[in-house]
Each structure stands twice: as structure tokens, then as C-alpha cells.
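Sharing a chain and its predicted structure for anyone who wants a worked example. Both blocks are below, sequence first, C-alpha cells second.
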Amino acid sequence: MCAAALEEYCGSIFGNASYLKRPDPDLPLCVEQTVLVWIPLCFLWLCAPWHLLAFCQSANVNTQPLSKLYICKQLVVSLLFLTAIAHLGVTLGEDFGPNSDQSSKNAGVYYANPVLFAVTWIVVLLCHEGLRREGAIDSASLFLFWLLLVVCDIFPFQTLLREALRLGEVPDVPRFSLFYISFGLELIALALSTVADIPPEAKDFIKKNPEAGAPFLSRITFNWLNSMVLKGYKQPLVQEDMWDLNESDSTAFINERFQHFMKPELDAARVRFQNKMKKKSAKTRDSAQEDPQLSSGLGKGEERGKTEDEKKKKDNKEEENYPSSWLITTIYKTFKRILIETVCFKLLQDVLTFVSPQLLKLMISFTQDKSRYAWEGYLYAVLLMVVALLQSLTLQQYFQRCHVLGMKVRTALMAAVYKKALVVSNDTRKESTVGEMVNLMSADAQRFNDVTTSIHLLWSCPLQIIISIVFLWLELGPSVLAGLGVMVLIIPTNALIATKARKLQIENMKFKDKRMKIMNEILNGIKILKLYAWEPSFQKQVEDIRGEELKVMKKFAYLHSFSILTSCCIPALVSLATFAIFVSVSKDNVLTAEKAFTSISLFNILRAPLAMLPMLIASVVQTAVSKKRLEKFLAGEDIDSDIVRQDPSFNTAVSVCDGSFAWEKDAKPLLKDVNLDIEPGRLVAVVGAVGSGKSSLMSALLGEMHSTKGFINIRGSLAFVPQQAWIQNATLKDNILFGSPHEEENFKKVIQACALAPDLELLPGGDLTEIGEKGINLSGGQKQRVSLARAVYSQADIYLLDDPLSAVDSHVGKHLFENVIGPNGILKNKTRILVTHGISFLPYVDKIVVLENGVISEVGSYENLRASGGAFSKFLDTYAKEQSNQGNSETDEGQDAEDFELIRDGDGAQPDGASEDTVSLTLEREDSIRRSQRNVSVRLRKNTSVKKSENADEPQKGQKLIEKETMETGQVKLAVFLQYLRAMGWGYSAMVFLIYFIQTAAFTGQNLWLSDWTGDSVEYYNTTYPSWKRDTRVGVFGALGVAQGLFVFLGTLLLANASINASRILHSRLLNNILRVPMVFFDTTPIGRVINRFAKDIFTIDEAIPASLRSCLLCLMSVLGTVFVICLVTPFFAIVIIPLALIYFFVQRFYIATSRQLRRLDSVSRSPIYSHFGETVSGLSVIRAYKHQERWLAIRLEFVGNLVVFFAALFAVISRDSIDSNVVGLSVSYALNVTQTLNWLVMTTSALETNIVAVERVNEYTQLKNEADWVTDTRPPHMWPEAGRVQFENFKVRYRPELDLVLHGITCDIDSTEKIGIVGRTGAGKSSLTNCLFRIIEAAEGRILIDDVDISTIGLHDLRNRLTIIPQDPVLFSGSLRMNLDPFDKFSDEEIWRVLELSHLKSYVSGLQEGLQHKVAEGGENLSVGQRQLLCLARALLRKSRILILDEATAAVDLETDNLIQNTIRKEFSDCTVLTIAHRLHSIMDSSRVMVLDAGKILEFDSPSNLLEKEGHFYAMAKDAGITLESNTHS
């Protein structure tokens, strides 16, 4: 019916089989004029409305000049429009012209087509203009339209030509010539549509980000990456080669979107959670009323039983104590669009997957039937290739989008965790240590990344399975159900394995967290470990946890190999069951080549989804664990912003009304009934003993504590200077600006006031000197001054100063008080709250607040409090002597200042290369970020590189402290692979290889057997098939299948054992070496970098490398098998193999060069993320480039694979007379598999090569130079040092070989039991002296003798175990109190209680529930700084060696505690040699001698009284501190 209408419309025949039943087929003219014309035009008309929308939005008219490309395009289309008009003219001329033949008019199609085309060309002209207005660079739909048009026009093209050649002349010249003209123009238009039309102003942006300027064709083939791949091949890529991100890929953009969706979701979840809790509490109330026995707690036995039950219940219900199930919806809403795009691509790709087996079926039936025309075969070969190409393109688009999605999800989560970490409340922070937060950012976010890339398989796998089964049913009938049955049976085993694996995974994460936590502490406190020689104890702790971790990993690996056994045997068992049932059901069922190989290729399609599903389920399960962890952390309480009100109606700057504050919600309050009003512009001092709650008061004002009652009101912005300065790894200037705009005038003023000017002259790069992590290259005092300068610069209204003066020398303290804090300082009009232990400042403050045990005992001015005779006046009387002198020295204020300057000028000190304060805590750092966040928004900086000013382009030597992370370049050396294999064990490696080889042989044998089996169908055609033959066929087929599975199982087991072996060896080598590396390494290497080795790289070695090694081997074998089979069948193929292999090799090399380097960059750019859990979220551009170029590679490789398919089919067609159909089936079905396998091969080899980088990085740290041996052959006598005499002989030292000397030839003798005070301005080399005694730094020349033993000749542990130090920074480790005092369990409990009593901690510790087993938080967070200091004193008392070094140990302690400590030391260490590095001159006035150091030389060395009489340097310092000769003699 339809055909007849069309024939009338065309005036010729529409459908006729005779056109195709000949060796040179053709399409009927009518089809060419209708169907082939309508296809492209319909496509265009569907797409046109989108482009024409631009005209509706009149606002954005593009006013730029027209580009050349635009003009060319419009010109070509206009010419096409003219040809259409000409076509119409020709037809009109023939029908109505002067010499027209009235009897035969032209058919309707000759009118309709030119009109259709004319309209279409007008639409195209408008589309071009629409695109220009939108500012689009090209259009995919227009490109596809031109492509369709040209393809459809090829048929009339050859028809017209053949017709003309047959007749020997051109029958219809005008139409003939017009067609060819328009065909030429269409080709030009197609070519033009592949070029991007880039406006001139976008050119620069596109240089930085070629993706934005890539035309459609380049986008789908990833050609825009060529330049990077080429560059990466020529030279190793560096961070600077990375392209810019698209705006939509940037962290800021993603984070903003994510937070926008997260807020409502989380709020809804919180509401749900509260309702649930309400219901639950109601339930428990009811049950308690019903069952009074429970509440009275009768039977003890019952209770015990009950708690066990409860434990079980608790395990099941652990997820119920936080708002859950909101994260996934948030992610979905944030990334909805990209998700929908991926769904479309995946659907298309799945459908295409099933076209190949159908084509294969046609192909086989074609080779069986020798009478069919050859062109059919060629058509199938071409179709196979086209389908494969389309499949590759859609698959790669899908992958690319999935990877971008995964990356975005990871970015969003990392940013969310980072943001949350800044505002999380104390309760939540107590639950998650820094290590855990880093794990949330690295491991858990990565899990999400991995799962999102494959999330669509959740619906795509079942879809593929269903379609395969349908097609198989069509092939083999109900016997498919047998195969299906086998698959279904396997599923429960896999599920079982998955749940077991999940449990192991959770356990594994626990051990990882624990190990990372300890590592973090070890690295943070490495200096203390070295000083105390405690490394072995901590090494053992880590090794134990690692042992547990590896045990779990081993279990996991065994489970995994079991699941691999099932997934490997599935295809073999399934095809065995299906074919066996098929041939035995009835005698008529004979296995033909068509059936067998179509089924095999369908089974092969089935393999992927079936293998993927269990893996996917496992990873979804792992991600569910991560989801819980993330939800718990992100839904945790924020710091409560309501505690501190910001009510401007109050007339006080700070007021606390009847407030009680605790660190945790349910703990008893530390500060009780606090009432405090501070007027604006006042200076208030807070004094009190250690642990009386001074720092807690500060924290409460910052809103860091829970208020149990009352409230705080603060008017204005806050700035906070913490007790332990927090310094960022950035330049000095950036540390002071902290994100504020730079104003030169103000900056200079702040520098002067904070006494930083002399330091800037000393620092190699001035204010652009890079400061190491945690301020490693500044001394304690310098750090404190930078911290103060940051606060001053921020120009807040209220300053909270937590004892900033204790870490600096007395005269610097005085300077800071006069110029910054005091009544005449820069801040004189601001409100200042100063926690201080320095009595000398108290007379100058407006108001003093005295704290006792968390209660304000007195408030008032200095005079009032002195007069009142309360706690304060007692406190003063103890120290009144110093006080009285303060008066005398105040009179000659002018002279003072001069002296002060004089000391200044004479002082050319180096900054201490390493500081006394190597260790302030990571958490402190976050605190401080959070606190400063109140007045300075924390900006996520893209890269914290040193911002160089124009004049200082080259950083001078020493300015860069932190070396750039080294990065191997070029090929991963074979040596690295060999190292890994060696760690695995050679025997293991060889066995694994052999077993995998046998497995491949079995696989190939099975398929050859199958092709032989299908040959039977020809042999026994129309005769009965003997049953013995059938049984042998089935039996051998089955046996080979099972053998395959078993060998893979064996191989995987061996590989698992081997790789765990390697993991153990590599980790213990790394740990062993890191603990033996000299201190200099830690001063110049950010901790994040070392942690990264232990976290990311060890994780890669544990999990990624074994997996990629396994798949690499399997793929390699399978590729070899495939090539072998195809060559066996069509020897022709061997010719093509060589060029294909070459193309392959080159593409692969190009890619790997780039990929490997990008992987290394990715590792390197991650270190800073962990290193400063608060400095950078960078490294995304690298990751992005990395994912894209995987796609670049895949497209190119799949193209090679598609050629393999094409040639295999082509040669089968060419030589179809000489080979059987069953063998053709084998060859082509193998070839169809080859694309995937090739792809996998390159992916896995490059993954292996990029992962093996981890081994390289770990090895790099195992080859670092060690410090001297811990124990040498020359051991000191058992009782050494008995006398404790110390001699320095012309001792010189420098921190690093390229730096200047820090000590210039120190020579002195210190006698047994002498008490020496060491003083000097910051950076004079005081701490360097102690570092030398412990050989933290080794001598440049000269030597130190202790009891006549040269310390450089004995082992480090022998030396360090016999000396005792009380370090400047009290560092504690998480663990019990007891472990912190005695990690090796050498001492009894009595001894420990004794030293606790001596260090005035006994009452505190015995008051704790767990006593000595009290858990110390990470970094000792749950003890005050003073208490930590006392614990360090206890450590020293416990070791009781003949030489004691005090490094400003009392700087953080109030005077009362200071007195206690001093008295204890005087009494307990009276028979020891004591060296004290002092800030407070009071503490060393009773020394036997005082050493005055300056710039690394000894200026004066004599008894204090002699030095005071001499009126030299020491005298000037003492005068500043208000100590004179008379006062000294009094005391």
C-alpha cells in the first residue's frame, strides 16, 4: 500500500529484490530519492529548534565581527541553496518550458525534494547565526547532519556514475552536474563543521584549557589531548604543564553546589532523627514502667546475660545514633545532569553490544553457504567494524563522564570534610582524630569516587543479563535454563563472600586508622622520641598493628581468590551445562557452528556483568561503610554558635553572665559561675595557678566550650593568640596577613611593634622566607611574635592573648608589652584580655581577674587586690621581692630603652635552623584556624607556593626550607619491578607465571575443542549422532573448563601470599628507616609527605598492585591466546599483526609516558592536602587530565582492536572457500573479544606501571641516609656518666651542610654537679647547644666530652638514654599516662607514683577514674599545658640521670608552679649537673655560673654576681627583668 503511493510519488519502482540478487547490488532510485533524503533532513529538523532558541533571547546579541570560518560556512550553504533553486528550475523548465513534453510530466518528488532542500538550507543558515549568538564554538548536531547527508548521498553518487558508464553517456546532464556540485559543497560543509569557531578573546583561555575549544569530532576522539600526550612523551610533565579546570570542575564551584543541596537534606535528616529518638525514648519509658525488675536491677546474672544481648544488639544498631541516609540523595541532586547523560550513553552501548553476536551469526551462515554473493561478506565485515567503532565511541564518552563524575563527587566530599573539620564541636572532634579525618578525605572519598564511576552497572548488568538470556533462548531453547541455573546457584556463594569481606574491610579500616594515628603522633613527636631514645617502643606498637592488619588482609585475599574461582568457572560451567543439556535433550539437536559461536559470544557478554556484579556489590558495601563514616562525621554537631552572642546593645565589650562551661556536653563544668564584665578598650589580666582554668576561659570566650548555664556576649570581632603559636607552611608575610589585604604602612608598623624587624634582617628571604611546617625554622619566641603580629594585623576589636609573653626573652617581653599590649602600645584603644604569669606587667593593667580551680576568686585593680589580702596578695608576696625591684628599674625608663637597642645591634644571630619547638600539635593548628575563622575567612588557597615579589625572583639559598617533593621522572625503572618481585619472592613469582600460562592453554584448548565439536554437525548431517561421541565431547569440554578455574584459583592464592609478603617487607623497611633518619630530614620535609608514604603508597602496595599485577598477567595471556587462535585459523592474519602491534606499541608508549607522570603528580599534589589538612585542595587538574587521557588512549586502542575484528572477518571472507565455517566462527568470536582484552591489557599494564610508582616512592624513603647507629661496638661503662662533667672543645656546628655555622667554636668546662644557666637572645644558639649534646645535630668540628668519653664515638641510644631533658614543648602521645612516662615498662608502679608525687601531680592523677591508665588524648589535648609540663618533669625524675637539661621548661607555667618545679629540681637533682636554658632570669639567679650566648659564641661565662658587677651584657638583660645586684644578694 505504502510502496504503491511512494512509487507514484517517485514515478519509479520502490522495492524490488532483483536489485540485490546479483554480484553488483544497487538501491532502487525511488529509495534514494525518498528514504535517503528524509533521514538526514528529519534529523536536522528535530535538532534545529535548540539552535533557534538564541533568537528568542534577544538580550545576548553577539556584537563581535564575523569570523572567516562563519563567513565560509554561510557561503557554502548559500551556494547549496542556489543549487536547490536550480534543481527546481530544471524541473519547472522541463514541465512548463517552451519545449516541454505535456504527455509526461515530472513526478512529484522532483518538485518536493528541491523545495525541501531549499527550506532546509535556510534553516541551516539560521542555525549558524543562532550558534554565533550563543557564542558556541561548534555544533554536534550540525556535524552529524552533514555526515548523514554525505553518507546517504554516496548511494545516488555511485548509481548515477554506474548508469553513465553503462550507457556510455550522461542521460540527464543538468541534474547530473547539479548533483555532483552539491555533493562537493556538502563535503566542504562537512569539513568546515569539524573546525571550531573560536572568538579571538577566548583564545588565551583555550590555550590554558584546550578542552573548552575542542570541536565535536575532537571531543569524541579526545584529540584535544594530543598536545599534552605528545609533550608528556617528549619530556616528563610537571605541575605547570597542567591545564586550567573548567569553571564547573573547580573545587569552589562543586563545593558551593554540594553545600547548597546538602543543607536542606541534612536538616530533613536531622528532623527525622529527632523524631525517631523521641519515639524511642517514649518506648523505653513504657517498657521501664511495665517491667519494674529491670529498673531495680535484681539478678546480677540476668544483667550479665542482658549486657551480652545488648552488645549484640548494639552491633546491629550501631548506625542509629546520628542522622543517616541523606548523603546519597545530596550527591544525586548535585550531579543529576551528568548522571542522566551517562545513563543514555550506557544504554546505547549496551544495545550495540548485542549487535555483534547477531552479525557474527550472519557471518557464519554466509561462510557455510558457498552460493551467496561475496559482497554480503564484505558488508558484514564493514558492519562489524562500524558497530565496534560506535561502541567504542559511546563507551569512552560514558567512561569519561563517569570519571569526571567520580572526581567531582570526591572533590565535593573532600571539601565538605575539610569545611566541617573547621567548625566541628569538641565532642565530635574527640571521636575523630586527625588521622581519621585524613582517612575520611583520602580513603573514604576515594571509595565514593570508585563507586560512582561504576554505579550504572547496577542497572546495566541485570539489563545485559536479561537481553543475553533472551537471545540465548532464541538460539538454544530451554536448555539455556540449565546454564542460568548454574549462574543463580553461584550468586548466594558470592553474596556470602561479600558480607564476610565487608566485615574484614571494616576491621581493616580500624587497623589502618589506628596505625595512621600512631604514625601521625610519631612523626609529630619525632624529636622527643629521639631525645628520649624511645623509637623502639613505638616501632613495636606500629609493627604490631601492621601485623594485625596484614592478617586481616590475608583473610581478605583468600576470600577474594575464592570469589575469583567462582567467577572464572562460571562461564565454563554455564556453557558446559547449556551445551550438554542441549545435545542430550533430543537426537535432533546438533551443535552447529552458528549456534555454538553465537552462544559463546553471548556467554562472553554475560561474563562481564556476572563478574562485575559481585565486585560491584562488594564495593557498594565498602562504600556503604564509608557513607556511614562520612554521614556520621558530616552530621556531627558543629561548634555551638549560640554560646557566644553578638548583641550590640550591651555597653560592655565582653560580658559573661553566670556562666558554667565544660569541654563536653555531659562532663562536669570546669569553669563555674563565672561573672565578668569588661568595658571596651580595657586591658585585663587573668592570673591563676596551673590548671585553674585560664586557657579554658579563653576557649569559652571563643565559643569552644559547652555552656551548661548562662551566656557570653561579645561586641565586635575577636583575634586570638594561642599559648602555642600556630604557623602555616607559607611565607612569613602570608602568615601575618592570613588572607587580609596587604597594606605596606600598617604591615611595617606591626613588624616594628612585634620586634620582628631584627629577625627579618636575619632571615635569608626577609618577609618572603618560607616557613616550614609548624614553623620549624623559627625559634619558639619568633613563632610567638609572628602569631601575635597576625592578630595585631587583623585589626579586631577584642584581643584574647593566651600567655604570649612566656615564650619570649624578658627584654623582648617587655618590648612587646610596651609597644603592643600595654597602655601605650598599638592596641591601646582595643579591648585586651591577657593571660599572664609575668608579675612585672600587673601594675599596668586596668583590671586583674584571679582564677582558682575554675572559679573567679577576685576581680579588681592591682592596688585593690594587694590591699585586700586575698589569694592574690598571697600570690604576690611569694614573689614580692622581684616585685619591689621592678619599681627601682622603672625610674630610668629612657636609659633602659638604649640598653635594649644596644643588645639588639650586637646581635647577629641566625634563626635556629630547627627550633626548640619542633612540635606543636596538628590539632592545635586546626583550633587556631577555627578560631581565626571568626575574624578572617579562611580561604582555600590553590597552591601555597611562595609568592615572589619582582625583585626577589630567585629565592636565596636557605630561603626555601621545604624542598619541593622529589618526583621520579621518565620510565619506571625495571629495577623497581624487580624490587617488588624480589620482595614477593622469586619462587612465588615464577610459579604464578607458570600457572597462569597453563590456565590460558586450557582456555584456548577448550575453544578449539568446541570448534572441532561443531564440525560434527556437517559430518553427521542427517545421520544419528553416536552417543559415545557426544559424551566424549561434553566430558572433555567440561574438564578443560574446570581445569581453567582451578589454575586461576591456585595462581591467585599464590599471588595473594606473595604480595602480602611484599607488603610486610616494604612497610617494615620504610618504618625502620624513617625512625633512623636524622632530625634535619624532618625539619625540611612536611609531615604530610611522610604520612603520604605510609597512607596512600602503602595502601597502593597493599591493595592496588596485587590486583593490577593479576589482571595484567591474565590479560597478557589472553591476548596471546587470541592472536594464536586467529593466526591458526587464517594465516593471512599474521601479516596484519605486525603493523597493528606497532601502532599499538606506539600508542601505548605515548600514553604511558604521560599517564605515569600524571599519576606521580597526583601523588605529589595530594601530600599537601593531607599535610595541611588546612592548606590546599589542589591536585584536581592533574586528576582530571589523568582520567581524560585514559579515554584518549582507549579510543585509539579500541580503534586498533576494531581493525583486528575487521581483518579477521575480511580474511575469513576472502578465504572462505578454503576454511570451515566452524573455524571462522572461532576466529571472529575471538577477534570480537580482542578489543576488550587489548584495552584491558593496556589499562592494566599502565595501571601497574603507575601503581608501581608507590614502590618507587617507598623505596626512596628506605634509602635515606640514617643518623649514626643506635648502639655501636664501643659501649660506655655501665654506670657512665658517674660524675657528669661536660667539656666542649672548640665545638662548631651547622644545621645543614649548605648553611652557616650556628655555634662558632664553643669551648668550656662544666664540672660535676654544677648548675649552669644559659641565656641569650632568641636565636643565639641556646637550643642548638642542647641539640648537640644529644647529637640531634652532629659536630662540624671540635668535640664534646662527658666524663672524658667523646660522645661522637658511642651509639646514639647509649648516649641519649644516659641524659635527661625536660623539653620546651611538653609532648605527650595518645595512650595511657603510664605509657607516656615509661613506654618500655621498666619501672614499677610505686616508682611512678613517687615521681608523680614529686612533680605535684599525684593528687590530680589519683583523682582520675582510671588512675595511671587514664587515656591521654592525641597530643595530650585533655591536659592543660602546665600539667603536660609537669608530666615531662615526672619523666625526667623517673630517668634520674647524672646530667639534666632544662629547655625553658617553665615558660608555660605560672610562677607558683614554676617555684614548685624549681624546688623539686634543686632538691632531687642536687647531685646532678644541670644545664638550664632560661627566659626568666629569676630562675637562674642561683646558678653556680651563667653562660651568655650571642650569635653562637660565648660572650660571658661566670657566676651571676660577678656578671652583675661587670655590668656587661648580662647586666643589661637583668636590668630589663628588674633584677639588680642587691636583689640578687637578698635572694
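Comments welcome. Residues 535-585 form the longest helix (51 residues).
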